[in-house]
Design brief:
The protein is α/β, with parallel strands linked by helices. Helix content is about 35%, strand content about 25%.
């Protein structure tokens, strides 16, 4: 699993404007929260190669709260932490937070459903 760090608003604009049909995953992480750390670790330890995600993005929302707010606005999702948002063609197609964040759940929602 390879993270692409989000550290500018332009990264969100780029994801929003992508119309390739690729799936992008955004992980909003609070570095001060043990639940967020457990969710991140669960993703890293159990990632499944069958999940058709083109790129996995990581946002440290403690240092980039304004970008976290931009994500909520751009993709019409309620802010939560930890949170994953899967984006396709500029739209959020799946979101989960806290203990619902798991590779198997992502696979179930995106492929096996």
């Amino acid at each position: 699993m390879e993270w692409t760090v989000i550290d500018s608003p332009e990264a969100i604009t780029s994801i929003k404007n992508d119309t390739s049909g690729n799936l992008f995953l955004i992980f909003k992480h609070s570095t001060r929260c043990s639940i967020s750390s457990m969710a991140k670790s669960r993703l890293e330890r159990n990632w499944l190669s069958e999940i058709p995600i083109s790129q996995i993005f990581y946002l440290d929302l403690i240092h980039h709260r304004s970008i976290s707010n931009q994500i909520a606005e751009e993709f019409s999702v309620v802010h939560e932490s930890p949170q994953i948002i899967v984006v396709k063609n500029g739209e959020a197609v799946y979101t989960a937070s806290h203990n619902l964040i798991s590779p198997q759940t992502i696979l179930n929602e995106l492929v096996l459903k």
